[in-house]
Amino acid sequence: MKKLSILFFSFLTLHFSVIAQTKKINVYLLGTFHFNQVDTLTYDVNDEKHQESIKKLAKMVTGLKPDKVFIERMPEWEYKNKMDSSYQEYKNGKLRKMRNEIWQVGARVAAELNHPHIYQCDHPGMYGIYYQKLVNYVKAHNEEDKLTKKNGLGMTIPLTTLMKSDSIRKTVDLLEYLRWLNSAAVQQSSHAHYINVYPQIGNTNVFNSESDYFLGADLTVDWYRRNILIYSKILAQLDYKENAIFLIIGNDHIPIIKQLFKDNPYFNVVETEKWLGQTKIKTKF
């Protein structure tokens, strides 16, 4: 028995030593707003001042030399969105005025690094369906403040709501706005409402399973499921020979995906503030 214990301990030591010695893949994550979902009459990323910021951002990311660039698109829909063939067009000088961050940042970086492909990793969720159910529930139970104002015991108001992110975006350059979005305080508060607002809405009486039993928690579960599947799709497209990868995706996705990569011993998540820079915008609580 003693020999078996020694052998088992030696095996574990060797196993974890191999993991520790394996060169980790650097992970660079950038949370963003969706460039093409902003009213172009008030905020057009093709404007010269915004293009200057985007070029600076792209230069920062290309300097990190990611081997693969991942974007928020579903690979299963390649037959429909033809992202890969569109990327080839981009490399040939087309689609440069497309407002989506996929083209403005993702494709720009991949093209400058002469990558043959741009990688897709999105997965659909049911956020809209669950959220509408919550809207109906709070209206029927006179609890609308919980959803609209996050006004309840143990609930967090995201800084993007508290500080009116639309106003901030219009008063600072795009690069500074992205620094603010990716700051720890903003991302933590944005993630917090997924785990302390939604789970408190709906019938949360654990002794009475009704039709709306843990209705808000179902939204949170679906949000985690979506992000875990996005993470899984990234892993599926790696050969583990990469030195670094880059993902640009909606900012609310970052906290979960970041934690998954942090807990995976084959990856090293480089804090965004280290390569993007720290925001000068003061956080207000």
Walk me through the structure.
This protein has 285 residues and is an alpha/beta fold. It has 14 helices and five strands. It has a five-stranded parallel beta sheet, sandwiched between helices. α6 packs antiparallel against α12. It is globular, with a radius of gyration of 22 Å.
Structure at a glance:
With 285 residues, this protein is an alpha/beta fold. The protein contains 14 helices and five strands.
List the helices and strands and how they pair.
Layout: H1 2-21, E1 25-32, H2 48-64, E2 68-71, H3 78-81, H4 83-91, H5 101-112, E3 119-120, H6 127-140, H7 144-148, H8 159-162, H9 165-171, H10 174-181, H11 184-196, H12 215-236, E4 244-250, H13 254-262, E5 267-270, H14 272-276
Helix pairs in contact: 2-5, 6-12, 12-13
Strand content: 5-15%
Q: Round the Cα radius of gyration to an integer and report it.
A: 22 Å
Q: Give the CA-based shape.
A: globular
Largest sheet: 5 strands, parallel
**Could you report the average pLDDT, rounded to the nearest whole number?**
91
Sequence of secondary-structure elements: HEHEHHHEHHHHHHHEHEH
Strand order of the largest sheet: 3-2-4-1-5
The amount of helix comes to 40-55%
Count the E strands: 5
Q: Segments where pLDDT lies below 50 for 5+ residues?
A: none
Span of the ends, CA to CA: 59 Å
Structural class category: alpha/beta
- The tally of helices reads 14
